[in-house]
Amino acid sequence: MKFGKQPAPVADIDEDNLEVHKPKAEAAGVKAVMVALERAVAQAGVARTAHSLLRLNQRGGFDCPGCAWPESDKKRKTAEFCENGAKAVAEENTLRTVGAEFWAKHSIAELSTKTEYWLGNQGRLSEPVVIRAGETHYSPISWGDAFDLIGEHVKATTADRCVFYTSGRTANETAFMYQLFARALGTNNLPDCSNMCHESSGSALNPTIGIGKGTVSLDDIHDSELIFVVGQNPGTNHPRMLSALKECKDKGGKVVAVNPLPEAGLFNFRDPQTVSGVVGGGTPLADEYLQIKVGGDLALFQALGHLLLAEEERNPGTVVDHSFIEAQTDGFAAYREARGSLDWAETEKATGLSRDQIETVAGMLIKSKATIFCWALGVTQQPHSVDTIKEMVNVLLLQGNFGKPGAGACPVRGHSNVQGDRTMGIWEKPKEWLLEALDTEFGITSPRHHGYDAVEAMEAFERNEVDVFVSMGGNFSLACSDTETLEAGMQRIGLTVHISTKPNRSHVVHGRTSLILPTLGRTDKDDKHPNGAQFLSVEDSMSVVHSTQGRLTPVSEHLLAEPVIVARMAEATFGPDHPVDWKAMAEDYDVIRDHIARVLPGFEDFNARIRTKNGFVLPNPPRDTRSFKTDIGRGRFTVSPLEYLTPPSGHLVLQTIRSHDQYNTTFYGQDDRYRGISGGRRVILVHPEDLVELGFKDRDLVDVVSTFRGHDRQADKFRLIAYPTAKGCAAAYFPEANALVHKENVARESNTPGFKAMFVRFVPHLAETTDVEAEGELETAAAG
């Protein structure tokens, strides 16, 4: 390891440097600490790293820009962060900067050949830049001219030809202003990163339990008797969750892991802040591991429901919570009838699991008096995802696992404040009560027709129906599906505006005119206001709202805070006579919070409550009062048909995954340590038996072809890796494999892209030949 500040990398990822080793059997440990510190110091130096990490996830400090896992409301550790949280802070904390010299040196043609790893590691954006039609390079522009340009383009078109995308990193106050800007303009075109991840969760939970969020607290995780971790890799994506699972295990709880890949974090956790984690063997986590086929979760939970009902029939009153069901739910009779019988042969085919395995886990459920189901994107990104989550809710309702300690539903959000953004009104399908409240508060008339979600926005790009696209953070090009189609569509747009901290791919596949506006990050001090330094707020995965305030000196004096950028866009668009006082909100964030308090239920007295020690918890009827605010006022059992993924002959089911050196579309490095892969990213993990059956061998170089409704997509030059994934299934990194997802391959109801539902085949990659070689081959052929 090299400790010390390092310059931005000159070399990019070279796939020929790929190394493959045996996967790890444990997660975290001392190695994680050393890697985190090495990356942090390389970006920001020792002093800046120490100053930031000691405030990370602490009271009065700043919230991690990574995942949305909550902090304890009791005692917090000095190091209240994980390896990937430290990497996320290092990326933002960096002293590397990207300014006029960088953009003058690198043309769009050159930057388009660079990977996201290279682009992101160049450093923080330090001044606003613009590129216009026909130009080859971005060049500096003043903030005033940039906002004038935005205002001109927005005023020159209609509201519904404007799209406002949001990343989950956006704080509550910014998100509220952003959706207000869009609605004051006259559009609900507010796609966000939820559309690509947990939209299926909300689509399933709202009609069944009356809230689109989880129903558990951190204490519930600690006190649960049984936790299912389904379609989730906490060792990489939510590492602090491992500590919570360890506490559950220490109290006697049990864990069931359900995943096609045997991820290290599901098995053994070596807590680097404990003696046993440093010198001992760590804590085994999963009591049972179900290596399910991709897309087999619906069949699994239908089988579990069947087995619980069968045991209740044998021993009445021992499994099903009849009093809860009668008092609080609807649809139980139809559910009981649907789950009364089961085709075991079909279930085993769908899941890849044996009947004995499923019955063993059902026995654990039967014994448990407090069960939590946790899930993430492995469940939400398939055609039948919404039905799968509804089936999970059925099993929870069956045993009354709502509104009691240690029990409930826990969709684990993957990005800090992605849940808060939705709470603030970032949604293309707003409820009438929200629009009425906004209209009353601000004297505007909000549009009532629905807007575009992420996939619909991409389709509008393709139809040339978008003139202005504004991205508040994020990297839309690499976050969504059908990459080639998406990027071609983005380049048709009249104006793209990217409010960002670092360069990314979306800046390169820009509209005819494009602006990059550099903004403050979570770690940065925001003190250029009449009343001094300001703070913001975020909401975690368990509905706790708390403050976040950066303390570091920004790397450039030309950075603006996100609320200020939104306000100045609005002022340039609407002029001085608009009923909304944008300037007041930009100058004092308490003004924004006062508006929120009058508009959004649960935020009453926002400014006082956000200044308390631990913030406050938003109302959650299933958890708080064991009640369900659905359209019928009850929890709803549902009945779904059995459905699973059945690829054509010669194909596998491909799912996308993150590497351990990655968070969403950001690459911190080139090391997927727990899976034993480093130096390259264009890999496909395939079961060894599948390789043999398909006529390939380990390390073969192939082109990957996906098929969807008769349409093929192709991505070239991937290396096959023999790996112990579920048979019939394969895995590749996101976003490299996004190009294989057809834009119409989505989850029903939620419209979430099918990143876990691709049918793929492999063809040998033909090595490229040089012009000289090709000419020689033609001469030889002619002579023959």
UniProtKB/TrEMBL annotation:
Q: Which SUPFAM superfamilies match?
A: ADC-like (SSF50692), Formate dehydrogenase/DMSO reductase, domains 1-3 (SSF53706)
One of the Pfam families matching this protein, by short name: Molybdopterin
**Keyword 4Fe-4S: yes or no?**
yes
**Where does the record place the Molybdopterin oxidoreductase domain?**
124-490
Write out the entry's keywords from A to Z. Answer: 4Fe-4S, Iron, Iron-sulfur, Metal-binding, Molybdenum, Oxidoreductase
What cofactor requirement does the entry state?
Mo-bis(molybdopterin guanine dinucleotide); [4Fe-4S] cluster
| Superkingdom in the source lineage | Bacteria
Query: Start and end of every Molybdopterin dinucleotide-binding domain?
Result: 652-757
**Matches recorded under InterPro entries:** Asp_de-COase-like_dom_sf, MopB_CT_YdeP, MoPterin_dinucl-bd_dom, Mopterin_OxRdtase, Mopterin_OxRdtse_a_bac, Prok_molybdopt-oxidoreductase, YdeP_MopB
Metal-binding recorded as keyword: yes
Q: Which NCBIfam families match?
A: Fdhalpha-like
PANTHER family referenced in this protein's UniProt entry, alphabetically: PROTEIN YDEP (PTHR43105:SF4), RESPIRATORY NITRATE REDUCTASE (PTHR43105)
Q: Which family does it belong to?
A: Belongs to the prokaryotic molybdopterin-containing oxidoreductase family.
**Protein name, entry field:** Formate dehydrogenase subunit alpha
Source organism per entry reads Pseudarthrobacter polychromogenes
